[in-house]
Amino acid sequence: MAIRLDNIMERWAALFKEIRHSESAPRFFRYNDEMALDEFVQRYKNINGPVVGVRTHLEGRFDTAKRMDYPEEQFIVMMRANPKDYLAQADAKQRCKRIMKQFLVYLEHLKKEAQRSGDRTDPLGMLKLEDIRYDTLGPIANEWHAVFCTIENNEYEKLCYSETDYLTEEEAGWTDLPSL
After folding, report:
1. 13-25 pLDDT, tens per residue?
2. What is the dihedral of CA 95, 96, 102, 105, to 10 degrees?
3. Is the previous residue joined to 139 through a cis bond, with omega within 30 degrees of 0?
4. Closest CA to 71 of 1, 141, 171
5. Which of 61, 136, 129 is nearest to 93 (CA)?
6. Do strands 155-156 and 68-80 pair parallel, antiparallel, or not at all (unpaired)?
7. Which of 116, 127, 134, 142 measures 20 to 30 Å from 93, CA to CA?
8. For 59-96, what is each residue's pLDDT tens digit?
């Protein structure tokens, strides 16, 4: 079972007073990769406050023997700043960084709640929040500045091989057996 950071952040963005995401005032988005950000920020031309998003591109490692998935999750906090005012740009990056930390503290709260449940394999309880990487980017589309944050995670997968998950070779039409 995996966590869905995008769903968690969307809920947080609605609850966090500094963001206040809603259907009528959207301030949360999902994106595939950094190359698609220009297209997304065009939708937020009239917003002066921060917006947040989660990269839905999947990246990580999987240890089959241990059934452990080590995904990397990435989210972004963005704000507009005057492209000619370097102080305003620096202030925007610092505010984005502060908001990033607020989200990480919220995740830590969820982690502690999950750990209290006693399930050692709960993905929220296994979140790695000790050594978080972040980086700034900007300007994007001339006036947006951002903080990207990457979380490396541990997720236990309860997977077992079962013949009931597979067709027989005859059912699959795989009658010519190549040598393996």
Report:
1. 999 999 999 998 8
2. -130
3. yes
4. 1
5. 136
6. antiparallel
7. 127
8. 888 888 888 888 888 999 999 999 899 999 999 999 99
- State how far the Cα of 149 lies from the Cα of 78, in Å rounded to an integer: 11
Nearest to 107 by CA among 3, 27, 18: 3
- Output the six-digit token pair for 38: 């220009």
Amino acid at 136: T
- Tokens 């998935």 -> residue: 69
Residue 165 phi, psi (nearest 5): -80, -5
Number of Cα atoms under 13 Å in the Cβ half of residue 135: 5
How far from each other are the two terminal CA atoms of the chain, in whole angstroms?
32
Q: Pick from 53, 54, 55, 56: which is nearest to 19 by CA?
A: 53
CA contacts within 13 A on the Cβ side of 83: 7
